[in-house]
Amino acid sequence: MQRTGVNNGTLKSQNRGLVLRLLTTGECTSRIDVAKRTGLSKMAATNIIAGFIEDEILEERETIQVGGKGRNPIQLGLSPKAPKMIGVYIGRNECSVVLNDMHLTVLTKAGFALTRDNQEHLFDMICRCIERIQKKAPDERIWGICVSASGAADTENGGFRNLQETAGSGDVSLKSLLEEKFQMPVVLENRYNGAALAEKLYGNGRDVESLLFCGICEEIGSGLLLGGGMRTMYGIQSSLGHISIEMKGRQCKCGRRGCLQMYASIPMVRAKYRKISGEELTFREICRNAEKGNALAVETLDDMTDRLACGLTNAVNMFAPQKILIGFDGCILPSKYMTRLEKMVNEKSLPGDHIPFQKPALGRNAGIRGCTSRLLMDIFNGELL
Questions:
Q1: Which end of the chain offers a freer environment for a tag, N or C, measured as fewer CB atoms within 10 Å?
Q2: pLDDT tens track for 123-143
Q3: What is the pTM of this model?
Q4: DSSP state of 239
C-alpha cells in the first residue's frame, strides 16, 4: 500500500512538471493544448494549471482567437512572479553568479576573476556573490542553486572532478557547503551539458531528440543529449577535446598525446597563427582576416576545421546525434568554415542521415544561460514540485 502511495505521488509530481515545462517553453499555450499533448483529462490538466496560477508560477493572458464554434481558449504563460534560479558558472579564468528566470534569461549578475592565488577562497567568494544577488532581488522566490563548470560532476562528493585546468577550482564540495549555507537545493552540471540542455529547451535543439553541443574556447568540451532529448549524461564529462586524433601527437595536460584540444582549441589556433605570421591576434581577428582572404588566416582556420572534423567524426560514429551545435567562441567561426566542417564530417562518418551543423540560438551566452538548466529540468521532472 505504501509503495502505491509513493508511486501515485511521484506520478502526480511528474505530471505537474510536464505541464509546467510545456507551458513555460511555449510547446503548449492553453489548457486544451496541454490535455491533448499529455493525455491528461481536461479536469486534471485544469486542476494542475489552477494550482500553478494560485502559486503565481503561471498566469492567464489574452484569449487566443480561433475560428469555429465554442469558447476561445485562454492563453497561459510564465508569471513574472514565478520563482527564479541562482546559477554559479565557473569558467577557467572567472566565475559568474547569475539570477535566471525559467526562460533562462539572465536578470542580474555578479562575478570575480579566478586566479591561483584565490582558489582557497572560492567558496567564500561564491557565497558573497550569491548574497549580492539576493540583495538585488530581495523579494524573489528561489527554486535553488545550480553550479556549472568544466569537468565531471562528482555526485558522491558534491564537487567536480578533472578540474585541473580551471584556476581556482580546487576540490571544494560545493553542493553540501552551499546547501548548508543557503538552505536550498543545490545541483551540479557540466557547463557544456548545461548549454546543450538550454538549446534543447529554448534554442536550436528543439527540433531533435539527440544533440551534440561542441564548445570551443580555451579547451574543447561537449554536451550530449541522448535518450529522448531531455537527459544529459549527468555526472559525466563528455570530453570531446580529449579524443586523440594523432597517436604520437602533442603532449596534453591530461597525460595523453594527440588530444583534439591541443590542435583546435582557441589558444592552439592563436599559437599556430602567431607561428606562421609573427602576429599576435585574437581569434576574432583571425576569423576577420580569413573572411578578407588573408592566406595565413585561411590556412589556420582550414587546419582548425580539419582537426575538428576528425574529432567530431569519431563522436558522430559513437553517438549518432541528429544535430551538432558549435558554440562558445566557436560562434565566431565564419559561416564558410561551418559549411566546410559539416561537409567533411558527413562525408567521413558512417552512412546515415545527414547531420546539420548550426551555431547556438543563444549564441555565446548559451553557457551562462544554461548554467541553471539542470536545476530547471529537475523542476520540469517534478523533483522540486
A1: N
A2: 999 999 999 999 999 999 999
A3: 0.91
A4: -
